[in-house]
Amino acid sequence: MKLKTLKSQTQSSMLMKKRARVDFIVGTLFVVIMVILSFAFNVEFVESVYEFTRSHESWEMDELIFSFLWIALTATIYGIRRVIDIKSINKEITYHAYYDSLTGLPNRTLALSQLDKLLQNSHRTSTSIGVIFLDLDGFKDVNDSYGHEAGDILIKKVGEKLASIIRNDEIVARLGGDEFLIIAGFPQGTTNIESLINRLFKCQNEPFSINSRSIDMSFSMGVALSPQHGNSVQELLIAADCAMYEAKRNKLNTACYYTDEIGQKISERYRLSAQLKLAIQNEQLYLVYQPIACAVSGAIEGYETLTRWNLQGTHINPELVINLAEDIGLSEDFFKWLLKTTLAEGSRFLKRDQFIAINISVKQFLDVNFLVNTQKIISAFDHINIEFEITESSLIANFTETTNRIDALNTMGIKVMIDDFGTGYSSLSRLKHLKVDKIKIDREFLNDAVNDKKSAGIYESIVALAHKLDIDVVAEGVETKEQLDYLRQFKPIFLQGYLFQTPKISTEQTSEIIIKDIILHT
User: Fold this and answer.
1) What is the DSSP string of 458-501?
2) Reduced to 3 states, what is the DSSP secondary structure of residue 385?
3) SS3 letters for 204-227?
4) What does DSSP assign to residue 46?
5) What are phi and psi of 252, to 5 degrees?
6) What pTM does this model have?
7) What is the Cα–Cα distance from 502 to 304, expressed in whole angstroms?
8) CA distance 166 to 504
9) pLDDT for the residue numbered 518
10) Closest to 459 in 3D by CA, of 487, 494, 429, 433
11) Can you tell me the mean pLDDT for 395-420?
12) Reduced to 3 DSSP states, what percent helix, strand and coil does the chain have, rounded to the nearest 5?
């Protein structure tokens, strides 16, 4: 799409240009008037000037005339140069104001300006405007692994590839960071938008070469259309952004179109975010605990702490609580509340040899203040055995930093457990390098292992690998007698699940005798 003529001057540059024009016009008029007056003067005046100059031989008439001519010529050239320079400055200002310096693509300001013009024209024609919000998946990992310079090169190459598949009736812009916006106009009722989406997805087929490294990059795309999803720039941007977020959250391998349901979910998320901020500040959240028992003795070895939020009778999923806290910038505050409250309550019901396991998100684990906050809080609870549960995604995000932090936690006397083991792709090859105490096998593996031989083989291999590395195994999601019978073959192993107890507050924990009886005699 050809970008229309833009307002290419700032207020200051327009004033400079006006002054330069005035100077040039005044200078030109002065020269013209002086020439005319020169012809209109009486000869006697000129002759008297000539006689005067002859009486002062150092003031020759021709020297005076040429002096005035050189001054006039210099002033004229200066005026012309000022106009040319200001035009060059205006072009440079326009470029930086409307184009992204890294990719050379239109920036947010220009893209939104063009989108507004397209929407205004669409009201007079049978045209639909498609807005595609595109975000790179895992871009932070590239920055963390290869450095910000590599990240900039990747953004530039992605911009070049996107620009190469854009046609004349389409615009691609960089909004900032790893976000791009694609705008297209097409006749209503056509499938042109699908053709554009297919071209965009083809950009993922070939890896990008960055500093002699081959990097695969995928996109998450959200699509909004006018008039069905909005008739203004703001409405379409919000709709496309919501759809993109849905695609990224659900890891969809296709573009996600905005729907009213998505909009309602996002609105609900914003509402919950505002409520959560108050809940954390006013300590309205609470904790529940689920026992982790030994399959050999039946004794309770420890407990996992889980966050609960009762919002006006509605119980909010603990994972959603963590995600919301990160969205609103309260991840660190939430972690400090979680650790302090867990240790304070745990000190009242834990036995001396039992541990307390606390789930730590990737963002919390890699936060710059994580180790400092941890050391400060645990210093008042040195008699409690603490374990942090981190997910495999923490390893993938930054393996070197993860290793260093696990070593630091071990120095503090805190053990580490890998949660949801088996759902990622890096742990099997890197497990030997990590000083972890336990792995917790994802519950889906147990569900499948009971009914499927291949899944059972995978489960058995994970347990055998962990035992060879002297790492304990926790089987989570134990809910049936059949699952318990299946797990008996893996002794020693730890067990956790609803078969023994649902998560409960500290004062309502199931007696160890009851849990032991279930494990040993069921």
Assistant:
1) HHHHHHHHHHHTT-EEEE----SHHHHHHHGGG-S-EE-STTT-
2) strand
3) CCCCEEECCEEECCCEEEEEEECC
4) H
5) -75, 135
6) 0.62
7) 11
8) 56
9) 93
10) 487
11) 86
12) 55, 20, 25
Q: Which residue has the tokens 């004033």?
A: 15
Which positions ≥6 away from 301 have C-beta within 8 Å?
A: 292, 293, 294, 354, 355, 494
What φ, ψ does residue 310 adopt, rounded to 5°?
A: -100, 100
- CA gap 255, 120 in Å, rounded: 26
Query: How far apart are the C-alpha atoms of 209 and 233, rounded to whole Å?
Result: 35
Provide the residue type at 493 as one letter: I
Distance CA 198, CA 167 (A): 13
Amino acid type, 346 = G
Question: CA 520 to CA 462: how far, in whole Å?
Answer: 24
Q: Identity (one letter) of the amino acid at 225?
A: L
Q: Give the closest residue to 223 by CA, choosing from 256, 178, 254.
A: 256
- Reported as a single tens digit per residue, the pLDDT across 273-330 is 888 888 877 777 899 999 999 999 999 999 999 998 888 777 777 788 888 888 778 8
* Residue 399 φ/ψ, nearest 5 degrees: -65, -45
The 10 Å Cβ neighbour count of residue 396 is 18
**DSSP assignment letter at 507:** G
Q: Which helix (H) or strand (E) holds 182?
A: strand 179-187
Band the pLDDT of 512: cuts 50, 70, 90: very high
Residue 442: φ, ψ to 5°:
-55, 140
Read off the pLDDT of each residue in 487-495 and give the average, rounded to a whole number: 90
List of residues 6+ apart from 433 with CB closer than 8 A: 403
Cβ atoms within 10 Å, residue 514: 11
Residue 504 DSSP one-character state: B
Write out 108-169 in H/E/C secondary structure.
HHHHHHHHHHHHHHHCCCCEEEEEEEEEECCHHHHHHHHCHHHHHHHHHHHHHHHHHCCCCC
> Token digits for 59?
């003031």
pLDDT of amino acid 140 = 77
Model pLDDT for residues 121-176, shown as the tens digit of each residue: 887 777 888 899 999 887 877 877 778 888 889 899 989 999 888 887 889 999 88
CA 231/CA 236 separation, integer angstroms: 7
